[in-house]
Amino acid sequence: xxxxxxxxxxKAVYEELHTRTEAFVQTHGxxxxxxxxxxxxxxxxQSYVNSKKKACLSLGFGHQxxxxxxxxxxxELLSVVRRLNxxxxxxxxxxxxxxxxxxxxxxxxxxxxxxxxxxxxxPMSVGKLxxxxxxxxxxTPLGVLTMLDHYKIETxxxxxxxVGRSNIVGKPLAALLMQKGRDATVTVCHSRTADLASLxxxxxxxISAIGKPLFIQPSMVKEGAVVIDVGIxxxxxxxAKRGYRLVGDVDYxxxxxxxxxxxxxxxxxxxxxxxxxxxxxxxxxxxxxAKDTK
Amino acid sequence: xxxxxxxxxxKAVYEELHTRTEAFVQTHGxxxxxxxxxxxxxxxxQSYVNSKKKACLSLGFGHQxxxxxxxxxxxELLSVVRRLNxxxxxxxxxxxxxxxxxxxxxxxxxxxxxxxxxxxxxPMSVGKLxxxxxxxxxxTPLGVLTMLDHYKIETxxxxxxxVGRSNIVGKPLAALLMQKGRDATVTVCHSRTADLASLxxxxxxxISAIGKPLFIQPSMVKEGAVVIDVGIxxxxxxxAKRGYRLVGDVDYxxxxxxxxxxxxxxxxxxxxxxxxxxxxxxxxxxxxxAKDTK
Lengths: 294, 294
Prior knowledge:
The structure is a homodimer of 294-residue chains.
Chain A: E1 2-3, H1 6-28, E2 33-39, H2 43-59, E3 62-68, H3 74-86, E4 92-95, H4 105-111, H5 123-131, H6 139-150, E5 159-163, H7 170-177, E6 185-189, H8 196-200, E7 205-208, E8 225-229, E9 233-236, E10 244-247, H9 252-255, E11 259-262, H10 272-292
Parallel strand pairs in A: 1-11, 2-3, 2-4, 5-6, 5-7, 7-8, 8-11
Antiparallel strand pairs in A: 9-10
């Protein structure tokens, strides 16, 4: 059994991004720039926004932060997004989700210029993904593919079973893996699936993104399968400093002994997300630069 | 075993559309109008375009035909599409595919106003479909869902195996059936799938859209399964008037005896397609009218 280390893979990604960013700056005379928009002061969201800022700084990317008050109007947020769309020095725009409940997230996402949609949540990006056209791929699914590639895990003809059908993980992953070139046979399971274990047992590659701690047990995993754990769940742990610890969807201790590859939590897929956001931002900057010189 | 008749279901759809169209005309003082753009003179495409025209006439829809020469430029086609986008008397725009090879189909489809995309091929429509937002659903997948609904076939918790991953059938059907509300467990198989029969054998609902005559044999179908045959294939038949006859992907004669429901070819899903196009056109007209009165 081999552990698929998010730390190791993201380190390799950052090294490549460093080189490509230097070349980009040399060629164009400016750095790829990400604008992050946060509404309100939710501590978890603030912490995510800070991590993104740090990643930008570490790569020499430009970075812009916009924080709107919790009680801002939808129109105020949209006008910030429109301003960033029009700003040619901004290449990637990310509106931190979730938004306050009085806002219409879909309308906000659809307002982002699709050429700056580095989160890959715009319906144009999602549609192109399913059709099989080049586009921005949302960060967690892109992180999963990058880990599979890093460990040279073949997907062609393999049965990939995805547990969870969210818009940010399960559905885009299914869309990606069934495309020509990836060529996986893809099954998407979810809370309504009858006899889940008999399906997961047939998986050559099992991907769980359901958000239930220790949900995937050894009896649900085929001997020698590849197990990708996208879940990040807090469980109470009085022995831990903060009173909780992070676990995945997979019961790692019992499952790991009979699979061929497995991602740990923490230190697995979660580590990849921001690296992929940086990759998308560099890509956005490169595509926008190519468009300008046309 | 019950035969799912496309004729019966489309008749019911047309009856409903007749009533809704009359109400629409009464309310708005004009009819839903479809514009069909054909490039070149391929006989099959001409025949499809004619069928669409007939359907429009039968429902009292407005209808516009645009035929461009085979050697038209991409820009000529785009300017027709842009003119139709801007024409408020046109509610649905359909560019007949395939286009000549010197044209970029994706660019043409993306130029169609998404509010008039009655074919459901625009990436915005496809993206919204996968995300689970209301949108135009392409006609063949919508026809399949309509047939399932007509025969009260439950999809929740059922294992739907789709054979074929095309952009017009397999992928959008998978996206639709995995959504909340439909709640199917969905597997997408294709030419690269290993051990296809063992997967199709687990299907409660088996949908074939692979375009191979008589591909689905009884040994691939679970006793009591629902079998939906989207394939329409020509096979030589010296006894037939035209020298060929139409068969599906499913070996109907041998498979039908051990499934619970089955669609015939011809007379099955194929019959539904144009009815669904009319439904989308009425929907486009209704949504555009609602937008105008806002």
